[in-house]
Amino acid sequence: MTINEKNTDGTLFLKDVTVKIENRLKEIREDLSEGQKEIENMHEYYWDNYTEMDQYGYEEYDNRQALLQQTNANTEKLKLKHRFEKMLDAPFFGRVDFAFEGEEESEPFYIGIGNFAEKTGMTPLIYDWRAPVSSLFYDYDKGEASYEAPAGEIRGEITSKWQYKIRGGKMVYAFESDTKIDDEILRQELGSSGDVKLKNIVRTIQKEQNAIIRNTKDRILVIQGAAGSGKTSIALHRIAYLLYHDRENLKSSNVLILSPNSVFADYISHILPELGEENIQEMSFDIYAYHELKGAVPDCEDRYDHLERIMKFPDSGEKERFRLKQSEDFVGMTEGFLATLEDRLIDFKEVSFRGAKLTEEDLIRLFYFKFQETPLLKRMDAVMEYFVDAYETLKGRDISDEDRELLQGKFDSMYVSKDLYEIYGWLLEDYGFDPLPDVPYERRKLQYEDVFPMLYLKYRLTGRNSRKNIKHLVIDEMQDYSFLQYTILKSLFECRMTILGDYAQTLDTKQHDVLKFLPKILGRDIRTVILKKSYRNTYEIARYAGKISGITDLDLLERHGKPVEEETFSSADALLDAVSENLNLGEDGYETGAVLTLTEEEAYDVYRLLKNRGTEASYVDRDSSAFKRGLTVTTFYLAKGLEFDQVFMIQPEKDNPLASQAAYICATRALQELYVYGVENGGNSDENK
Ligand SMILES: Nc1ncnc2c1ncn2[C@@H]1O[C@H](COP(=O)(O)OP(=O)(O)OP(=O)(O)O)[C@@H](O)[C@H]1O
């Protein structure tokens, strides 16, 4: 029986292909050890013959090149080795039998996590899920179908479709299905615990998700998707797809993901390696901003300080001020301020230097006309360079470092201030905001509401270096970025973008209208895709979450589970008893659970009380950087983007402006079970005292 024989249940092919993968692995291991020896020999030759190499260094150059080539070849082999080792565990997960238009016989195409051929250059026995032909598997039922190949559209007919589950090299199940990815398999994938972190979904990518992953046309793709619709998963699979198809131009170091915090970064960190790609850089925009502002302020508050404050002091006016300072109106105010700043910032004084001179009139001409386009805080440097050039040409020699320093002092002294902190303070005062505290540099701490406005002002005053090495930017949780932040991002990144989020999961009391203002900032070449099908939660949890958010038009996967349990207890003690009773983690239970609160203080209290009772838990705060198996205690805002098998959501005792947002975010974090617990007013625990 040949491995191409049709209508098998895949077991024979599995046997055959496993042997072939093993053989290939053996060859690769031998090549690798040969290659390693080769490198060692080259090193030895180099050291033995170093002194005798030709004086121009040609031989040395050749040696280095050969060494580099061999190292690169070894790295490529190592990657292949990793891929094939992974494939030995589960070589393929799908198969389409496709009869090309005009042909009677159909050909089987097995689909797996990567390509596999017996030898480099031979027709693959297994196709990478990202190969053009593999889209047949995700996009079509049995019947007429087509796919986009580099040479154009290929038409034909799918005569049969199979889905497999292979673990440890053994076939767990195989079944033929007429339809796209069968819902039953999807339910099984979602219902099965095992992975703690976000998993790859290559086995069950849905058609609408596949269209996003394989979209290469749109420069800026915006995905608005309901909680649990797979946005983060899709964005990462899309990067894997783009890296595979554009290897020449796009390397993993050219892709950057803006992620909300380090725990989230850890949570998603293994998907790309699992898909055979290197991990991509990750950055929090807040941390980037703090670095950029270091010259003006040694310390900045973070977003979580701001959130905690608006929960504690809802009527302080902070929410409204924050919103205004991140808005389009504030960008307008800053521009208005900049228009009058030139006159206010500079006090022109004639410059004389060793017989040469720049009169006030000269300075004004250069400053306002010749260097008009140079950012204000850099403009005097440009005028100085102009003067230095003219002086050096006249004298026929360069000026000394001491003289340059002297001149720099003279030109700098024309600025009334070069301190961004002070200048930003003027802007606030001009528009009637409270001024910044007048303290020396070491004692400055910027409130979160001022971080991005100050960064915007900085870039307008000094210019910015756009990040040209980044060719694709991924922005997750798009609803948490403001008009002002997108304006700054646009000036920093001129590249393709995948922007994803869910306006219902905002961390504000009011939803930002991101989808409306994005085209204003990023231009017209934006394509927005809306995802309404939610996969994460059981039907019961999704319905419950829908009631909180008022979102009723969701398409829910019929995966049923335990009803949501809502209960109010007479004391914190009784509440924690209920948590302990229902917690079902460990060998025979689930992998992950979370107790989620609104504020940091509440989270820490619960964590402490649980610990006192001997319940193992990890406390995740803003400085945490790892997502762990077991029970996690944290706030709703740090749990955003994550998921847990069991969620215990603790309702606040006092009114809280973010209560409804928090409830929606907490509820949608639960994969299998959701408990909504509260304590009656006045309920108090002895342990709590
Ligand atoms: N096609 C799919 N097959 C299997 N699982 C899927 C699929 N799509 C999504 N999922 C699962 O649904 C869950 C939610 O996915 P993901 O976290 O990517 O969604 P999200 O839209 O980013 O969620 P949120 O906005 O709520 O954080 C994950 O467990 C993911 O593995």
From TrEMBL:
Superkingdom, taxonomy of origin: Bacteria
Residues where ATP binds: 225-232
UniProt keyword annotation of Membrane present: no
Residue ranges that the Swiss-Prot or TrEMBL entry lists as coiled coil: 18-45
Keyword vocabulary terms for this entry: ATP-binding, Coiled coil, Helicase, Hydrolase, Nucleotide-binding
InterPro entries noted in UniProt: DNA_helicase_UvrD/REP, P-loop_NTPase, UvrD-like_ATP-bd
Domain UvrD-like helicase ATP-binding: 204-538
Protein name from the UniProt record: AAA family ATPase
Organism: Ruminococcus turbiniformis
